[in-house]
Amino acid sequence: MKNRTVLISGAGVAGTALAYWLRRHGFAPTVVERAPALRDGGYKVDIRGAAVEVARRMGVLDQIRRERTDVRQGSFVNAAGRRVASMEGDDFGGRTGEDAELLRGDLNRMLYDLTKDDVEYLFDSSIAAVADTAGGVRVTFDSGATREFDLVVGADGLRSVTRRLVFGPEEDYVHDLGYHVSIFSVGNHLGLDREEVTYVSPGRTALMYSTAKDTGAKAMFLFASGPLEYDRRDRERQQSLLAAAYATDTWEVPRLLAAMSSAPDFYFDSVSQVRMDRWSKGRVVLLGDAGYCASPASGQGTSLALVGAYVLAGELAAAGGDHGAAFDLYEKEMRHFVEENQKLGPQNVKHMVLGSRGLIRFQMTMLRIMPYMPGKDRVIAKILEPIHKAANAISLKDY
């Protein structure tokens, strides 16, 4: 086997899943993660279509089912908090068949536990420089230490440091869809029991949900915006931008915003996609959001990460470690799947954030009467068809 030693930047779902498959195929992966420990908690994520089969092949599908959020109902509320339309949780979340929803941190912990005993993890560290050598890659870490690896994988998310170091400036690849998103933990002051409630105003959506695995709740904000000026490390500035965007909203919005200053997991970023003509350069390759983020609005980021990890490791194994051939086949296998899932982001976000009161009234009316419509199940299936077509837009090889 050539090119056995592989450095993976990022211990998220993509990185830990790749570490599992590489180790299973006989490689020696090392995972570097800038956080001081594995990131627990986080928002809820979906596993659909081909990703369900990947989870089955990893032997974790039953465990995923045990960790499901079990959200039973999704509702829209008016400014007074009255529920004006409700749907079953799976219909609300676009899930059918074997699809499953769980907290990102629970999935990440699950994959880490599969690998922690035979994969090297370097926490509280990150890549600072990458340089080609005669037969590999010399990596300099932020500590100043250097090591050599046969291959490097950037699985470090939308704001990938690996991509910037090897492929060039972020603005060449990250495309803002015209929205921003924020999510953080809050107290469950509404007493929600495995329920998601959503409040919609023109250009802005706010929601709150509770899950079976969390005694608290999460608040999420999604709003239309042009480019915003802020430092990604400046939490106070991000929170002021969020507060300004929702300054005129009612429902529970003021109370939720008041909780953000004490939230341990405050997140704020643009709703963006990563679009690249090529995901590899020399001995460096990108995986998941770093190479082909479909945006949170797609609902497919986790599935893309799981499937991408399976295919990348499988092609490396099938090619005997020949990285050039493997990277070419990885792109060939994944490109259509990625493109189909990236189409979902711009489509979905327009239904999540409505631009006028007229559109809001129309959507609320349709949601309110849907349970009483003849052929309701066929209508829902037609609505969900694009996401399930995209989720299954790849035939998995047996590696």
UniProtKB/TrEMBL annotation:
Pfam families: FAD_binding_3. Keywords: Monooxygenase, Oxidoreductase. SUPFAM superfamilies: FAD/NAD(P)-binding domain. The keyword Oxidoreductase applies. This is FAD-dependent monooxygenase. Residues 5-340 form the FAD-binding domain. The keyword ATP-binding does not apply. One of its GO terms (molecular function) is monooxygenase activity. It comes from the Bacteria.
